[in-house]
TrEMBL record:
Family (UniProt): Belongs to the multicopper oxidase family.
Pfam families listed in its UniProt record: Cu-oxidase, Cu-oxidase_2, Cu-oxidase_3
Keywords recorded for this protein, A-Z: Apoplast, Copper, Glycoprotein, Lignin degradation, Metal-binding, Oxidoreductase, Repeat, Secreted, Signal
Cofactors that this protein relies on: Cu cation
Protein's recorded name: Laccase
EC number, UniProt record: 1.10.3.2
Organism: Hevea brasiliensis
Role according to the record: Lignin degradation and detoxification of lignin-derived products.
Length: 578
């Protein structure tokens, strides 16, 4: 036992608590300050499912360390690469106003940080608060290099919902028994689909429903009669996940770091790259049971998927300050079928942005630039001297408007800034599908994609509408499309082909949900709108890494405005070179 101190006077305790109200994050009392983080990229050995493997991590932690800041803070994250792989870090959902240099996607906004090199991500969090995530943005490194990014509000009292007793982060991921880089490299070489993961994880732990895994179970220990804020993040590589807790309903209060009109649900659906904050009200009296926390995919893919279930356990602390015996029964909640598209659609339709004087919405009512993009799979021909394991002896590919994006060998943002686009990118990204067909009917018999590093250019502050249309080529899927540098409003969505005459009549231009990643309905479409007020080069892509690797991506160039504060900032001096 340590030395004993005289107890603090009660008023002092109250005063301290008032100052450090976010009891989970006492280190972030002030706002508007500079916070320093150091990310050492190192390999460690990690054991799950009775297999030990070497994995790339930040600071030897899996999942990676939480980055916690307040709205208005400056972040300086020094990344030092000690591994043989290249690396970059993306601050997923951070707007990076005029500052694409800190956004992170390799060969889009920066060259990768090579072995033994260092780069400082230098950015300010402006006008945003909520749960986001950070992750590697180089090949499939984000399978192990990811963590929470938590932006607390500036003022203690400013949550638009009752102050939670505690805050808890739940980050969902995917575990591969072998090296994820080897898996995608093998797939790109053979043309076939990559091996699927062996487990899902909650905070890095697969839980008791897998063999040899019971000791690696996440436990959420709660007190009765309290409200907990769960910050749920999907950092999985390739899977939308249903999430549920037995016998407890959840109140959704935030999505992708914007507040939503609260609604109650038994079940969440969360795409890779999405975040959902929910309130969990615990039962008034500790029950004589424990409760499974489960996550399992939603998918309509025709290919193989990892259809396993990760489990954590919610357990109650009793008044005697101990957790009850392990023999308590564990209650298992139901989960919808893996292909439950109607459940997915009902859930998505419930989101409305919270709109009030403090959080006004700025939904474009008129549109300057319209785009119609198909998103889906395709193929590319097999080289003559090869055998390919994709559909009908081809290579799997994926595309936006039938163009499969090719990563250049130099970064687009630098090339743009220094006016050296030659050989890096072209500005001819198609605004509409080059060959229209019935996108949700019988697919065309030729499924070959075009290839190129094509970008679309938009003027500063244009109001933009993009309709994202899923295609039937090689099967419908719910593609989670993520836009860098922006949030957007989801003004409409539906099944079948988008109808430009009738569908806009049903748009919600009042309180549509504001996201950075939209799950485009499987066999349907989604319409998004935003003002192009952030100059730079911004990637837009499917957040399934397999589709990203196959080319389901494109980039925007948003031009500078006329005024000085409407221009892209100059690059930092330590920007990596390639
Ligand atoms: C990981 O395990 C391998 C093989 O068992 C061993 O050679 C290596 O030193 C270990 N690495 C670390 C960082 O512990
Ligand atoms: C990185 O640094 C280590 C230690 O100085 C050195 O052994 C290694 O060769 C370097 N690797 C590269 C690729 O520069
Ligand atoms: C971060 O960026 C700001 C402004 O863009 C600059 O003034 C500052 O020197 C930078 N800090 C570091 C450590 O690079
Ligand atoms: C993928 O799975 C196949 C079949 O199980 C196996 O032979 C192959 O080694 C796996 N590839 C990697 C990179 O793990
Ligand atoms: C667990 O192990 C048993 C026995 O070895 C095996 O039959 C079963 O398929 C395994 N289950 C999983 C999910 O791997
Ligand atoms: C998961 O997929 C395997 C292999 O395709 C199949 O045998 C099994 O029935 C599926 N399990 C569930 C729960 O859908
Ligand atoms: C979901 O899958 C089951 C089993 O494969 C199938 O019977 C059912 O028709 C599918 N449902 C939908 C909505 O596609
Ligand atoms: C296949 O042919 C191409 C040229 O057409 C050549 O570059 C490549 O090395 C060949 N690959 C194999 C596996 O022979
Ligand atoms: C594969 O070829 C068969 C027969 O030529 C055709 O019916 C089928 O549509 C093709 N599938 C794909 C995915 O191209
Ligand atoms: C597209 O195909 C679907 C499914 O076959 C069909 O229901 C729909 O009427 C077709 N749409 C058009 C415009 O042809
Ligand atoms: C592909 O479709 C076109 C037009 O729909 C048709 O003319 C052509 O014969 C078809 N090719 C094959 C291989 O089925
Ligand atoms: C790392 O990045 C450099 C610069 O783009 C590139 O030349 C090199 O091939 C990359 N290394 C790996 C292993 O991808
Ligand atoms: Cu996709």
């Amino acid at each position: 036992m340590g030395a004993s101190y005289p107890p603090l006077p009660a008023f002092l305790v109250a005063l301290l608590l008032a100052f450090f109200c976010f009891c989970d994050f006492p280190q972030v009392a002030n706002a508007g300050i500079t916070r320093h983080y150091k990310f050492d990229i190192v390999s460690i050995n990690v054991t799950r499912l009775c297999r030990t493997k070497s994995m790339v991590t930040v600071n030897g932690q899996f999942p990676g360390p939480p980055v916690v800041a307040r709205e208005g803070d400056h972040l300086l994250v020094k990344v030092v690469n000690h591994v043989s792989s290249n690396v970059t870090i993306h601050w997923h959902g951070v707007r990076q106003l005029r500052n694409g240099w800190a956004d992170g996607p390799a060969y889009i906004t920066q060259c990768p940080i090579q072995t033994n090199n260092t780069y400082v991500y230098n950015f300010t969090i402006t006008g945003q608060r909520g749960t986001l995530l950070w992750h590697a943005h180089f090949q499939w490194l984000r399978a192990t290099v990811y963590g929470p990014l938590i932006i607390l509000p500036q003022l203690i009292a400013s949550y638009p919902f009752p102050k939670p007793y505690k805050e808890v982060t739940i980050i969902l991921g995917e575990w591969y028994n072998t090296d994820p880089e080897a898996i995608i490299n093998q797939a790109l070489q053979t043309g076939g689909a990559p091996n699927v993961s062996n487990a899902y994880t909650i905070n890095g732990l697969p839980g008791p429903l897998y063999n040899c895994s019971a000791k690696d179970t996440y436990r959420l220990r709660v007190k009765p009669g309290k409200t907990y804020l769960l910050r749920v993040i999907n950092a999985a590589l390739d899977d939308d996940l249903f999430f549920t807790i037995a016998n407890h309903s959840l109140t959704v209060v935030e999505a992708d770091a914007t507040y939503v009109k609260p609604f109650e649900t038994e079940l969440l659906l969360i795409s890779p790259g999405q975040t959902t904050n929910v309130l969990l009200k615990t039962k008034p009296i500790a029950p004589n049971a424990k409760f499974f926390i489960l996550a399992r995919p939603y998918s309509t893919s025709q290919g193989a998927i990892d259809n396993t279930t990760v489990a954590g356990i919610l357990e109650y602390k009793t008044s005697s300050n101990a957790f009850k015996s392990k023999r308590l029964p564990v209650i298992r909640p139901p989960l919808p079928p893996i292909n439950a598209t109607s459940v997915a659609a009902n859930y998505s339709s419930r989101f409305r942005r919270l709109v009030n004087a403090q959080f006004p919405a700025n939904v474009p009512q008129k549109v300057d630039k319209k785009f119609y993009f198909t998103v889906g799979l395709g193929t590319s021909p097999c080289a003559k001297n090869q055998t390919c394991q994709g559909p009908n002896g081809t290579n799997f590919a994926a595309s936006v408007n039938n163009n499969s994006f090719v990563l250049p060998s130099r970064a687009i943002l630098q090339s743009y800034y220094f006016k050296k686009s030659n050989g890096v990118y072209t500005t001819n990204f198609p605004r509409f599908p080059p060959k229209p067909f019935n996108y949700t009917g019988t697919p065309p018999n030729i499924t070959f994609v075009t290839k190129g590093s094509k970008v679309a250019v938009i003027p500063f502050n244009a109001s933009v509408e993009i309709v994202l249309q899923d295609t039937s080529i090689l099967g419908f899927e719910r593609h989670p499309i993520h836009l860098h540098g922006y949030n957007f409003y989801v003004v409409g969505q539906g099944f079948g082909n988008f109808d430009p005459k009738n569908d806009p009549k049903n748009y919600n231009l009042v309180d549509p949900v504001e996201l950075n990643t939209i799950g485009v309905p499987s066999g349907g479409w989604a319409a998004i709108r935003f003002f192009a007020d952030n100059p730079g080069v911004w990637l837009m892509h499917c957040h399934f890494d397999v589709h990203l690797s196959w080319g389901l991506t494109m980039a925007w160039i948003v031009r500078d405005g006329k005024l000085p504060h409407q221009k892209l900032l100059p690059p930092p001096s330590d920007l990596p070179k390639c």
